[in-house]
Model the fold of this input.
Amino acid sequence: MMNTSAASGAARPAPITVTITGAGGQIGYAAMFRIASGALFGPDQPVALRLLEIPQGVKGAEGAALELTDCAFPLLASVDIATDPDQGFDGSNVALLVGSRPRTAGMERADLLAANGAIFGPQGRAINDHAADDVRVLVVGNPANTNALIAQRNAPDVPAERFTALTRLDHNRAVGLLAEHTGAAVADVHGVTIWGNHSTTQYPDLSHATIAGRAALDVVGTDWGRGAYIDRVANRGAEIIEVRGGSSVASAANAAIDHVHDWVLGTANEATGADGVAPWTSVSIPSTGAYGIPEGLIASVPARSVDGEWRVVEGLEIDEFSRARIDASVAELAAEREQVAALGLI
Done:
């Protein structure tokens, strides 16, 4: 492990340790500078960064560490680089699991899950054995929901609800595209929900969404809101690859920061929308059976963070159209769980 900067002054709170896996990659690179600047925990909370990489990625992490030093962030207490998960997660309060095995041409789904099981199983065990008692885990690397399940099942001593997967990117996309389509301000959009899996089966739901206090489906019409809009959000990642020649980077890093920021600091104290309802976001968390989602699946639901814990928004009416879309995405998650179970990964 390599330490590259000195600790911060004693007058400040103790640093929060954040581990980023795949830190030499683009998403980790995009995230770490904002984390060091205070975007994750606020302007008064120091952070200590742990950059965990495979040996082939160490040079990229080392270069990023040099740049972090050159930025002279007042909140950055230290930067450590590790290749051993036991070291990388030692004392970690927040773990951003970014690095994963991407699917390549000709790769079967079972092969993809097995390859990622070889990454997220050991990481889960290292988190279990070495992370801080209050550790929070966000899985960014795809297939994020099932990778989170693998890590969680390999960390039996960590509360299950501490393992989450990133659908905040989908949520942000859904909000941004709705605002763009209607000419509304992003701040006037509330109540959008992403249900299910972080995949093309996800369901961006406008049933309870409002735009400046008006029902979103009344503003945009059901033909678009339950047609082209769903497809656009679900396939936005592919659209970005086609346009920029590479996958989402800055927006994925931003969404990861949004997710953890809200988890730690809360969503319930945000200003309510014009409809008087406190806003919620979309988070993939272990299901307790709410909304008919089988218990234990890590699926995206509407949630608020209160006192540092994600709480599912209860009592939303699910109509026939929404039920079918939710069930289809959840069925994909259930099938993935069966596959990783058959492979002995959970």
